[in-house]
Design goal:
The complex is a heterodimer of chains A (427) and B (151). In chain A, 37% of the residues lie in helices and 16% in strands. Chain A is α/β, with parallel strands linked by helices and 427 residues long. Chain A has 2 domains: 135 residues, Aspartate Aminotransferase, domain 1, CATH 3.90.1150.10; 266 residues, Aspartate Aminotransferase, domain 2 (3-Layer(aba) Sandwich). Chain A has a 7-stranded mixed β-sheet, with helices on both faces. Chain A has a 4-stranded antiparallel β-sheet with strand order 13-14-17-16, with helices on one face. In chain A, helix 7 links the parallel strand 7 and strand 8. In chain A, helix 3 packs across helix 9. The radius of gyration of chain A is 22 Å and the shape is globular. Chain A starts with 5 loop residues before the first helix and ends in a 5-residue tail after the last helix. In chain A, 54% of the residues are buried. With 151 residues, chain B is α+β, with helices and mostly antiparallel strands. Chain B has 6 helices and 3 strands; from the N terminus they run ααβββαααα. In chain B, strands 1-2-3 form a 3-stranded antiparallel β-sheet, with helices on one face. The longest helix of chain B has 20 residues. Chain B is globular. The chains are: A alpha/beta (427), B alpha+beta (151). At the A-B interface, helix 11 of A face loops of B. Chain A: GO terms for molecular function: cysteine desulfurase activity; pyridoxal phosphate binding. Chain A: This is cysteine desulfurase. Chain A: It comes from freshwater metagenome. Chain A: It holds the Pfam family Aminotran_5.
């Protein structure tokens, strides 16, 4: 099993040397929710504010030029991290906004088409009888926006169900993605189950019926090498803060064709070509989707995060996490009274590992772990329907990253046993 | 951190042996509350007995803190007058918002004083308050309380 040099990596993350709850060393196993930030990311943001801060894409002074260069350099770095052209990379507030931007393209186009059918691309116009396909393991961010699109357009939401071991049940895929389907929007790696889905297959199916294919890459892009073009999607959304970057920045990659065809989401300054009192025309992508003053320092920070990950190598990141996943899954499988929710092996699964403990509520498991300095996520992980599918109200989730090693997993396992002991539910 | 300061024996006892759990046959009103961050659920129902006292029923599922709190609530308030129960409820709210610096009156709060330690854990205060907020909601729906008191 190949692990990264975790001691050296940990030293790059100031927060990981802090103690919590009365002097316990912090064991951070909640990177699925948000990752910690290395010093180079913090330094990049600080350096930008100290030396280059100004409004971008306007102004004729030296700092305005430097800020614009820093912002567009960051876009190139982040685009290249996922194998994309920088013109096809849109910055958003977060992945939720990226997915809403995609969803609103459909409801906005549908609304505009009622008055001017020629003003919009028919691919984005929905009507009753049309279907939108998601999976039963979506994060709420890739579910609720599509429910809203259905409410506004009369389209119907369909979902690909799950097998008991937490994989997509593709046995009836032909009756789920069919000629009525206009959107297929699916998660690459589940944030709750850890499952890695066959997104290329699903995107190809989407294109067979001329549907727009969308991927939620929040849990894949930080954890494995991803070339967004090779995924075969029209749009890929992900967040910055889960890949060592700052909060307040997310990404949406799209093909040139689809970005051009989509109506804008937020409108106002910076996204226009020409404005008159009664109408406007819009800038080309990505500016078309970036209304208002953008998140410049965050983009600079996220670019530093992408460079940091590139230096480690995403293949090495994936191998490291695979080893941790195998180790964690084996230990949890061996614990009496503990059941993994999601694939109980390390095949086609990422490092987000959810489980339930017989007789114990996840909140209480998390509290006991917290008392030993171990930070995990408890709850429904913004995937409430997925919890319901598995008959559990919520789960406890371990989600390690590049700065975790086997000893961190050992501490979590000891904490689970301590919780069983404390509440008297020893199996 | 001392787990025992959070999970006092009284809380664990109510969690493992909930008092008065079950729904009413003819409630005046019923309130279903969830904690959307963790999915804990509670249904609290209210009615009145012949003497005008409060009758409470509940069902729920969730963590030890939320479920023990519901059990303590029922044990404390079952049969009490609306006015008395409101005094207890407001004292419990004050305790939970004290950030751990409260000095709870055991005369008023009974077993609920055990939740003093919970107030030091902001993430768990919502768990402890779940049943109490549902009770207030049910009482308002039943016309036993006016809106907006102590929320």
């Amino acid at each position: 099993m190949t692990l990264l040099d975790v001691a050296a990596i940990k030293a790059d993350f100031p927060i990981l040397s802090t103690t919590v709850r009365g002097g316990q060393p912090l064991v951070y196993l909640d990177s699925g929710a948000t990752s910690q930030k290395p010093g180079v990311v913090l330094d990049a943001e600080r350096n930008f504010y100290e030396h280059a801060n100004a409004a971008v894409h306007r102004g004729a002074h030296a700092l305005a030029e430097e800020a614009t260069d820093a912002f567009e350099d960051a876009r190139r770095t982040i685009a290249s991290f996922v194998g994309a052209r920088s013109e096809d990379l849109v910055f958003t507030k977060n992945a939720t906004e990226s997915l809403n931007l995609a969803a609103y393209a459909f409801s906005n186009a549908t609304a505009i088409a009622h008055f001017d059918a020629h003003a919009v691309n028919p691919r984005f116009v929905l009507k009753p009888g049309d279907t939108i396909v998601v999976t039963e393991m979506e994060h709420h961010a890739n579910l609720v926006p599509w429910q809203e699109v259905c409410r506004k357009t009369g389209a119907t939401l369909r979902w690909i169900p799950l097998t008991d071991d937490g994989r997509l049940d593709l046995s009836n895929i032909d009756s789920i993605i069919d000629k009525t389907t206009k959107v297929v929007s699916v998660v690459h790696q589940s944030n709750i189950l850890g499952t890695i889905n066959q997104v290329r297959f699903l995107m190809d199916r989407a294109h067979d019926v001329q549907a727009v294919g969308i991927i939620d890459g929040c849990q894949s892009i930080p954890h494995m090498p991803v070339d967004v073009v090779e995924l075969g999607a029209d749009l890929v959304a992900w967040s910055g803060h889960k890949m060592l970057g700052p909060t307040g920045i997310g990404c949406l990659w799209g093909t040139e064709e689809v970005l051009n065809a989509m109506p804008p989401f937020l409108t106002g300054g910076s996204m226009i070509q020409m404005v008159e009192m009664d109408k406007s025309t819009f800038a080309l992508p990505p500016a078309k989707f970036e209304a208002g003053t953008p998140m410049v320092a965050q983009a600079v920070g996220l670019a530093a995060a992408a460079r940091y990950l590139d230096n480690i190598g995403m293949d090495n990141v994936a191998a490291h996490e695979h080893a941790l996943t195998q180790y964690t899954v084996n230990l949890l499988n061996a614990l009496d009274g503990v059941r993994i929710i999601g694939p109980a092996n390390s095949t086609d699964r990422g490092s987000a590992i959810s489980f339930v403990v017989d007789g114990l509520h996840p909140h209480d498991v998390g509290q006991v772990l917290d008392s030993t300095g171990v930070a995990v996520r408890v709850g429904h992980h913004c995937a409430w329907p997925t919890c319901r599918r598995f008959g559990v109200p919520s789960t406890t989730r371990i989600s390690p990253y590049i700065y975790n090693d086997f000893s961190d997993i050992d501490k979590a396992v000891l904490g689970i046993q301590a919780a069983q002991e404390f509440f008297g539910v020893n199996a | 951190m001392n787990l025992e300061s959070l999970y006092q024996d009284i809380i664990l006892d109510h969690y493992k042996h909930p008092r008065g759990k079950g729904l009413l046959e003819n409630p005046l009103a019923s309130a279903f509350h969830v904690n959307p961050t963790c999915g804990d659920e509670i249904t609290v129902q209210v009615g009145r007995n012949e003497a005008g006292g409060l009758v409470i029923g509940y069902e729920g599922q969730g963590c030890s803190i939320s479920q023990a709190s519901a059990s303590v609530l029922v044990e404390l308030l079952q049969g009490r007058s609306i006015q008395e129960s409101e005094e207890v409820r407001l004292a419990f709210l004050e305790l939970m918002h004290s950030k751990g610096s409260g000095d709870p009156d055991e005369e008023v709060l009974g077993d609920a004083v055990a939740f003093a330690g919970v107030a030091k854990f902001p993430a768990r205060v919502k768990c402890a308050l779940l049943a109490w907020m549902a009770l207030q909601d049910a009482e308002i729906q039943a016309g036993l309380l006016k809106t907006g008191e102590g929320a």
